[in-house]
Design brief:
By secondary structure, the protein is an alpha+beta fold. It has helices spanning 10-19, 29-42, 77-80, 102-105, 141-173, 176-181, 192-208, 223-249, 273-288, 312-315, 320-335, and strands at 46-52, 56-63, 69-71, 87-89, 112-119, 125-133, 212-220, 255-260, 263-270, 292-294, 297-299, 303-310, 341-343. The longest helix has 33 residues, at 141-173. The structure holds guanosine-5'-triphosphate. Residues 219-225, 227, 232, 235-236, 239, 261-262, 334, 338 line the site of guanosine-5'-triphosphate. Its main location: membrane.
């Protein structure tokens, strides 16, 4: 038997696995449903979603197999996560890596195996989706394609799971009264205190996932004029619709904030400044592309944006420097003529 090597990015991989909060969690009905479909499609005895932890393989979902976990060093999936390629074993009895593997010589008596690596959003291979059977068999091109399609679906379910876990954390960590105090009642965005409260959790998540902390500082252009022409109620309508456009333009786990007045912001975890710049540009277009709808009719609204990115270790308790840098970009954007994104 040949033991699987340890991936070169092992510590980053394990950090990504931990941050997904998938290990030792209850069964996921959607993952199980997909595994059942796969079992019927491939006509095999077992289908599994396996996560490769430090010393063990743990099955997030398993159909046709009974064990919930096993040692990593004898796992087939330990081999699968070493590459982007499908690992295909036609007959384990005649494969030098697996012929004397305990899962081949004993229960579940694997002969045929096909597996594909599953990724965390940062690209780390945290586990695999595999199908295996007690009889040797081939793998058709259509089945190879199907493995890729299932991979996409399982990875989407992983992300959905992580979002649910984050939401649950928020529910647990903050009582309803406390949450209310952190939400701006007009726009339903986080308020300044909400940003302060949520910042440490986002910073530690950035650390875990080896991402940077990005801040987009926005300010509606000529808002005073909007108020003057459409009244305070019209201005409020613009703020409400601004909040809606913001959340639609960012990702679910980014924080949309109303810092006060017509100052809007986004706190986002990003790989680099370029990614944050693209996000800010998407935000800018979300405002100027289509007029706002007011009772009095359509109204063109634009926003100026400043952006800044920092390593998690540089952010500090209140993100003061990061916000100041993004604010400097915003100031510049206003001076250069508004309706633009400028780096702070
Ligand atoms: N309707 C409404 N107006 C607000 C609210 N908070 C602040 N404002 C108004 O927002 C306006 C901000 O105007 P300024 O800071 O002068 O800037 P501006 O007109 O947006 O111009 P630039 O930022 O330079 O493009 C003021 O008229 C405030 O009264 C609010 O909650 N609702």
């Amino acid at each position: 038997m040949i033991e699987a090597a340890i991936p070169v990015d092992e510590s980053q991989r394990l950090a990504a696995l931990r941050s997904m909060q998938l290990l030792d969690t209850p069964p996921d009905p959607h993952i199980d449903a997909l595994l059942r479909i796969a079992q019927r499609l491939f006509g095999v005895s077992s289908t599994l979603v396996t996560l490769i932890d430090t010393d063990r393989q743990w099955f997030k979902g398993r159909i046709g197999a009974t064990d919930l976990e096993g040692p990593r060093d004898v796992s087939f999936c330990g081999h699968t996560i070493l590459s982007e390629d499908i690992l295909y074993v036609q007959d384990a009895h005649s494969d030098e890596r697996f012929f004397d593997n305990p899962a081949v010589t004993g229960y579940p008596f694997v002969r045929f195996y096909a597996g594909i690596a599953l990724h965390a959003p940062n690209g780390s291979r945290i586990g695999s989706f595999c199908v295996h059977d007690t009889m040797p068999r081939g793998l058709t091109d259509a089945e190879r394609d199907a493995l890729g399609d299932f991979r996409q679906l399982f990875e989407a379910l992983f992300v959905a799971h992580q979002l649910r876990m984050d939401a649950a954390w928020l529910q647990e960590a903050l009582g309803a009264a406390e949450r209310r105090a952190l939400i701006d009642p007009l726009t339903q965005l986080w308020n300044r205190q909400g940003l302060r409260t949520m910042l440490p959790a986002l910073v530690s998540r950035a650390e875990r996932e080896e991402l940077k902390v990005g801040f987009i500082y926005g300010d509606l252009d000529h808002f005073k004029r909007i108020n003057d022409e459409h009244g305070h109620a019209g201005g409020d309508q613009v703020l409400i619709q601004s909040g809606q456009r913001m959340v639609a333009a960012i990702r679910p786990h980014d924080l949309a904030i109303r810092l006060g007045g017509e100052e809007l912001a986004v706190l986002a975890l990003v790989a680099d400044e370029q990614e944050l710049g693209l996000m800010a540009e998407r935000l800018r277009l979300a405002f100027c592309r289509q007029p706002f709808e007011l009772e009095a009719g359509a109204l063109d609204v634009t926003i100026s944006l400043g952006i800044a990115v920092a390593e998690p270790s540089e952010v500090g308790d209140d993100g003061h420097t990061l916000l100041e840098r993004a604010d400097a970009g915003l100031y510049q954007a206003k001076r250069e003529g508004r309706n633009r994104v400028v780096r702070g």
